[in-house]
Amino acid sequence: MRIFKFGGASVKDAEGVRNLLRVLEETGTEKTFLVVSAMGKTTNAMEAVVDAYFKDKSSLPRAMEAMQSFHLDVLQELFPAGGHPVYERVGSLFEEVRGFLAWNKSPKYNFVYDQVVGYGELLSTVIVSAYLNDSGIRNTWLDIRDYIKTDSNYRDVKVIWEKTQQAVSGLLGRSELFVTQGFLGSDDNNFTTTLGREGSDYTAAIIAYCLNAESVTIWKDVPGVLNADPRYFEETRLLDQISYREAIELAFYGATVIHPKTLQPLQRKEIPLKVKSFLNPSDPGTTVGKGKGIRPQTPCFILKKNQVLMELSSLDFSFIVEENISELFKLLHDHKMKVDLIQNSAISFSVCFDNRFGRLPDLLQHLKGRYKVMHQEGVSLYTIRHFNDAALASLQDGKVVLLEQRNAETVQLVVK
Ligand code: ASP
Ligand code: MG
Q: Is 261 helix (H, G, I), strand (E, B) or coil?
């Protein structure tokens, strides 16, 4: 079995769906399992529906209509003749959302979120499946919620592997083309759950694990995994081969291409993960798999913007030791700061972190009076894996380096 995952960008409009068909015509559809995300920015639009429901009910009808007319436009482009049963299916999915919102009594945001937002994937897969069937590519639409079983920690669930494995095993040996949703699961009460934003890659990995798949391919609008984000770096290079270990390292430092959660199940069964271009499906792309390091051997650049650099020193010239450091880490953790790097000397401790939840003022308040605190917001953290002198020089050029840290393979610079 091969698992193909098509993300929101690959099916952002009718043309995207037509292109998906072209990809399948080129790759063939034998023993293939399609995992599809919501179309384009649908998940964001669905989040807006949930926000409207909780914060401003008067704007709810407008938010719903925007979503519905977007999908209707896609349908009209793909099925211009009208009268196709897919119109009714899509219409009834919207009725389900409206019905849920009308009858729901739960005040719990995360619960409501999961019940509503997941319709993005149900809609996209109903449309893709119908379009492929009409184009002569026979396929079976599956409701992934019958297969991926999770706990009830809505918006951030954990997969219950035994139950999931058991359900997915029922698909073993079947050879038709399947089309199903990314991102979704269901809990013990059969309520919809979601795996966290960008969770569809993880869905592909879960299915691959349970089916002992031969590979997972993530179809993207880029040629594969690059050594740097082209939005911030000139002259990027395509990586042909990345080991699981290296991919996890890159993700740890902030590369956003592949989520570590996605890699873990694949790595355990040594299932290769390919990242390929949906515009040039026969190009080789990138393969993440067994082995060491990366090929070609080239420095990889990762940028995290908008970080905070904080330097603490003791008020009385005493050492900063285990006791203080463990206290500091507890404070950082309590304020949901994601620590990127630390450096300490006898009487000072520097830490660069992501102030993701905006709780910096509160944290500073806790530290005041106990340490001398200096901090800078809006700094950037650059990481270079497999650095060399030229790579380092190219980064330092014209920037004020506030802090540097290096080990054999990695250098990190905090710059203003
Ligand atoms: N549609 C979901 C999101 O945008 C899941 C995914 O695309 O992976 O986060
Ligand atoms: Mg998406």
A: helix
